[in-house]
């Protein structure tokens, strides 16, 4: 059963994580998010009561 042999897959896993952490992640981190969270508290409007026709 070749899928149980971890030798080639472990190398692929390690190389892909190294590629992500050393190359891709530093290029993505400098971008500024366009959705900056605000500290303003939002108050929800009171929900209107439902008019049930059978009550």
From TrEMBL:
This is ATP synthase complex subunit 8. It is found in: Mitochondrion membrane. Pfam families: ATP-synt_8 (PF00895). It comes from Butastur indicus (Grey-faced buzzard). GO terms for biological process: proton motive force-driven ATP synthesis. Belongs to the ATPase protein 8 family. Keywords: ATP synthesis, CF(0), Hydrogen ion transport, Ion transport, Membrane, Mitochondrion, Transmembrane, Transmembrane helix, Transport. Its main location: mitochondrion. GO terms for molecular function: proton transmembrane transporter activity. It is a single-pass membrane protein. GO terms for cellular component: mitochondrial membrane; proton-transporting ATP synthase complex. The chain crosses the membrane at residues 6-24.
